[in-house]
Amino acid sequence: VSYQFVSRSIESWFDVKVEGALDAGLSLGRTTLDTLSTELTAKVRVATTQLADVSDGASPLALERLREQLSASDVTLWTASGQLIASAGQSRLLLNPERPPAAQLRAARAQRSVTQVEGLDETSGQGALGAVTNSRIRVLALVTQSSLGLLGEPRFLQVIQPLPPALVANALAVTEANREYQERALARQGLRRMYIGTLTLSLFLSVFGAILLAVLLGNQLARPLLLLAEGVRQVAAGDLTPKAA
Fold first, then answer.
1. Alpha-carbon distance values, 153 to 34, 56, 85, 112 (Å)
2. Residues in the chain with pLDDT < 50?
3. How far is Cα of residue 57 from the mean position of the Cα atoms in its chain?
4. What is the number of H-type helices and E-type strands within the chain?
């Protein structure tokens, strides 16, 4: 009975519906992030065509308009060598804005654009709180060259758009819940063995205690009968002296 109770109790902790809901939540979060990234990438590619005929001197005003259109927190224009041409948004307040790595510039030149989702690495504690406010999508796209600038150095448009805090908080909550669920699911067999082992040990201790108690009580109950039988045998042998009880 105890074995069946423990087995069914442990299995009830790992409901198939709960696992399916967690998987669906993770899939929904990934799909939402992919959709946001794809939409921003498409918008940035369109924006690069607007910068094709814009000179470096006029690019700050054009970048500010693009930042408002894309609801971005930061928009920067870079050369192929990683030199900053112009910026709009948060990077304007920095003396040395973070430049794209050379590998990203090469990838953007080969693929026309590179997209990254940043800030979702931490899933617990203070890291999760920081991820809610710092998560963002970064898109680096090659600016389409105009017919007059084909011989010039390629330029790259980088757009950073913050992710909605509610979306990030929900995604982190589902990820953390799924991680804890999977950890407990992996320990399911260990939990079952531990409980069954504890119940088995309790069973043996209970049986041993019951046997010991039965022996002690049996001796106490049989002692007067044994004394009476001994006295009867002595009387039958002719010994009529009083016997001690």
1. 31, 12, 12, 15
2. 124-126
3. 46
4. 7, 5
